Amino acid sequence: MKTTEKNTRRVLPMSMLAIILATTLSLPANSRDYVNGNAPACNNIMPVRQSDNLSSTKATTGISFIREQENDSKNTLLSKDINVTEMWVPEVKINSIQGKTGTLVGFYGGALFNRTLLLGIAGGVNLGHPTVNYGYFGGIVQAIANPGRVFHFSGQVLLAYGTTKDYEDPKTGLLDDFWNISGESFFITEPGLNIEVNLSERVTFITGASYRYVTGIDSYNENIPVTRVTNEDMSGFNFNIGLKFTKRDKKQ
User: Fold this and answer.
1) CB-count exposure of residue 196 (10 Å: 0-12, 13-18, 19+)
2) Would you state the pLDDT for residue 177?
3) What is the tally of structural domains in the chain?
4) Is the pTM of this model over 0.70?
5) Which residues pair with 195 in a beta bridge?
6) C-alpha to C-alpha distances, 28 to 24, 40, 142, nearest whole angstrom
7) Beta bridge partners of 167
8) What is the DSSP secondary structure assignment for residue 19, as one 8-state letter?
9) DSSP letter (8 states) at residue 178
C-alpha cells in the first residue's frame, strides 16, 4: 500500500504540470505574458485601430470645410431674397407714318426680378405699312405694379437703334421686302403705359400705348429717295397688344 501511495503522489503532480503547460501553450500571446508574470504595457492592452483615426480625421476635416464655406460665402450685388426668372413677350404695334396706318411685329423680354422689374432686349420690324419700311433693336426696362392681381398696370421705356429703307418695288403683299430695312439709321426713345390681365399663372395679356420719339434721320439719304421720311414722320403714338410668357419660378 505504501508503494502505491507513493506512485500516486508522483503521478498527480506530473499530470497537473502537463495540464498547466498545455493550457498555457493554447492561450494567445498576450495572455501567456500574464501567466508568465510579464504583463504587457498599457498601450498594448487596448490598441487604437487605424480606422478610428481615419474616421476622426474625416469628421474634423468635414467640420472645418463647412465652417470655411460659411465664412467664405460669396457676396453678391443682389440680395438672396430677390427672385430672378425670365419673361418673353411677342407683340403687334399699330401706328401711323406719313398719314398711313401700318403694323409692326416685335418682341421684348429678359430677366424678371421679383415679377415686378424687367431688364431685357427688344426688337421689331415693319409688317404692314404701305410705303415706309423700317425696324429696330435695343433694350427695354419695364416696371410692373401689383403683378399678383388679375388686372394691373405696367410702364416701360424702350431705347433702340433703327434703320429704314424704301421698298424696291411698290408693296403688294404683306411680306414684300420683309426685313429689307438696312438703310438710313435713327434712334428711338419710346416710353409707354399698359394694362395687363393675368390669364394664368404664367401667361398675361397686355395692351397699351406708347409714344415713339425718333432722332437722327437724314431725309435726303440715298436709301429713302421716294418717301423722304423725316424724324417727325417716324415719331408718334403706337398702340400695342401682346402676350407675356413668364418662366416658372424655381422657388415655387
Assistant:
1) buried
2) 78
3) 2
4) no
5) 153, 207
6) 9, 13, 84
7) none
8) H
9) T
- 3-state SS, residue 240: strand
Three-state SS for 116? coil
DSSP secondary structure string for all residues of 182-206 = -SEEEEEEEEEEEEEEE-SSSEEEE
Does residue 97 share a domain with residue 27?
no
Tens-place pLDDT, residues 184-218:
999 999 999 999 999 999 999 999 999 999 999 99
Question: In sequence order, what are the residues at sequence separation of 6 or more whose Cβ sits closer than 8 angstroms to the Cβ of residue 76?
Answer: none
Kindly state whether residues 143 and 226 are assigned to the same domain: yes
Which residues contact residue 235 at a Cβ distance below 8 angstroms, ignoring those fewer than 6 apart? Answer: 211, 212, 213, 214
Radius of gyration of the chain (CA): 45
Residues 31 and 105 grouped into a single domain: no
Residues 232, 142 within the same domain: yes
With a cut of 50, which residues of the chain have pLDDT below it?
Answer: 1-8, 11-12, 31-32, 34-35, 41-45, 48, 252
Position of cell 500516486?
8
* Separation between Cα atoms, residue 20 and residue 223, nearest integer Å: 120
Distance, in Å, from the CA atom of 2 to the CA atom of 10, rounded to the nearest integer, reads: 13
- What distances in angstroms separate CA 245 from CA 53, 81, 160, 252, one per listed residue? 57, 23, 22, 16
